[in-house]
Specification:
By secondary structure, the chain is α/β, with parallel strands linked by helices. It is built from eleven helices and eleven strands. This is Helical backbone metal receptor.
Length: 261
């Protein structure tokens, strides 16, 4: 979409959208956000229009936005219909790849009049990705370690083929064992994980990590390769994703050396 002039009153309907607006120095335009929009610290003070999945159209209208930025896979369809019905200008943000992240930042820059800031940030993003994945490129055709990334315990849940983190793992030189499952966050059987026997398991907290000690036969347990990564560094498609990517690349690289020694 395009606007006649840069947006001055923006409502961001996902925490990662708020964070990306801050990254391009467009924070002064944000007048509304949703629950868990907590980074950077000043974002905590932005007025809320509800929680993820339970946003108030009335609160959105009351803030008189000239742009509402929706999260494609996280904004309820009914809310989007209401925004359309009222004629509020809106933009749908959905990041399924690292290239999408670049395009998203550039689009936000154009919509808020921060084009030069967005261009600078995306150039830094590309350079940082190249640096983080340098080892994976030099290791060439060495065997790729199998990776299991856990989202939830009960029931066991992971990333599907449409998830950005599959590309992150691949760029790091690994292969997600769930990269062929349709969807963003499918349920996975324990039998499948045990059969695939990943060399690296990525979890979101210490409790999830301890759970895997019940399966000492797994390669990842035997090599002490279960790593806890703050979910905000993985599941928010922002510049902080690079921090999570750095950790994944380091652990995958160590696993590749073990496999190919």
């Amino acid at each position: 979409m395009s606007l006649h002039k840069p947006a001055q009153r923006v409502i961001a309907l996902a925490p990662h959208i708020v964070e990306n607006l801050y990254s391009i120095d467009a924070q002064s335009s944000i007048v509304g956000a949703v629950q868990y929009s907590d980074y950077p610290e000043p974002a905590r003070e932005i007025p809320r229009v509800g929680g993820v999945g339970s946003m108030s159209l009335e609160k959105i209208v009351a803030l008189q936005p000239d742009l509402v930025i929706l999260w494609g896979s996280g904004t309820p369809p009914g809310l989007r219909s209401g925004i359309e019905r009222l004629g509020l200008p809106y933009f749908i943000d959905e990041v399924r790849s690292l290239a999408d992240l670049k395009r998203s930042l550039q689009a936000l820059g154009k919509l808020t009049g921060r084009i030069s800031q967005a261009e600078q940030i995306t150039a830094e993003l590309q350079s940082s990705i190249a640096q983080v994945t340098a080892n994976a490129r030099t290791e060439g055709k060495a065997e790729r370690p199998k990776v299991f990334l856990q989202l939830w315990n009960q029931p066991l849940q992971s990333i599907g083929k449409d998830h950005l983190l599959n590309e992150v793992i691949e760029r790091c030189g690994g292969r997600s064992i769930t990269d062929s499952i349709i969807g963003l966050a499918p349920l996975v059987s324990m039998e499948r994980v045990l059969a695939d026997d990943p060399e690296l398991i990525i979890v979101e907290n210490q409790q999830q990590s301890l759970h895997w000690n019940s399966y000492p036969q797994l390669h990842a347990i035997q090599s002490d390769n279960v790593v806890v990564i703050n979910p905000d560094l993985l599941h928010r498609p922002t510049l902080r994703l690079l921090q999570g990517m750095q950790i994944i690349c380091e652990r995958v690289s160590a696993s590749r050396r073990d496999l190919n020694d």
